[in-house]
Design brief:
alpha+beta; Alpha-Beta Plaits; 2 domains; five-stranded antiparallel β-sheet; four-stranded antiparallel β-sheet; globular
């Protein structure tokens, strides 16, 4: 299930946010769902062996116009982002939380809720073209000289496809509590080095990729990926895509 949330600055001013705003939005999401569900997702989540998955994903922030001001972004008075999850209760609680409050403060911006729109389920085929609404990231943790290092893969490395598939299998099994086997292929379409994005999340550098891709799998699996996100760190604002029509 996916919703589009639109906010307007209370006094008609420009909305200014840090360039690296992922943690702000993630915290905002947690604050606007019920305490029980918030604690469950934040502290426990859906378990696959030693992995914990939150089972939601959100997009970058969009606006009609924006410009960079050093370490900040200046948006128009209206901004919106998408939130998606296979857990309908999560989406419902978030929407209800926003409707009850109506007014919000995000990083010195006084905002009012303008609209919550429930996105229609897109048509999905076994081979589907997608556009990233937030960067895909996938990585391995390596150890060299007893030091831990995170290696982020690009869409041009064979590990990129393999690790995204394995990650999606883990999320599916954690959510549905059943074993599954499926094929999943992803390939970049006209993606180059300029599509790499570097995001700082709570002091940690995360590398991801935007752009258009082609994915191939069962329709059910693609729909699950649409709801939960592909790649890693979905609940931190990575791996949301839309279906290209």
């Amino acid at each position: 299930m996916r919703i589009k949330i639109t906010f307007e600055e209370l006094n008609g001013k420009k909305i200014i946010l840090p360039v690296h705003y992922n943690y702000l939005i993630q915290s905002f999401i947690y604050k606007n769902i019920g305490e029980e569900l918030s604690n469950f997702l934040h502290d426990k989540g859906f378990i696959y062996k030693k992995r914990k998955f939150k089972m939601f994903v959100f997009s970058r922030i969009f606006s009609k116009n924006f410009k960079f001001l050093k370490e900040k972004i200046e948006f128009d008075k209206n901004i919106y982002f998408y939130l998606s999850s296979p857990l309908k209760e999560f989406i419902s609680q978030f929407a209800e939380g926003l409707l009850k409050r109506g007014e919000f403060k995000i990083h010195n911006n006084n905002l009012i809720l303008k609209e919550i729109f429930v996105m229609p389920i897109p048509e999905i085929s076994k081979i589907t073209k997608i556009k990233m609404l937030s960067p895909i990231t996938i990585y391995s943790t390596l150890y060299k000289d007893k030091k831990k290092k995170t290696y982020y893969y690009s869409p041009f490395e064979k590990e990129f496809n393999f690790l995204i598939k394995e990650n999606l299998i883990k999320k599916y099994e954690a959510f549905y509590k059943k074993r599954v086997e499926f094929d999943f292929k992803i390939k970049p379409l006209n993606v180059n080095k300029n599509f790499e994005k570097i995001i700082i999340y709570k002091g940690t550098v995360i590398k991801g990729w935007v752009g258009n891709y082609e994915i191939e799998s069962d329709e059910e699996i693609i729909k699950f990926a649409y709801d939960v996100g592909i790649g890693s760190k979905n609940s931190q604002g990575f791996g949301m895509f839309e279906i290209c029509t």
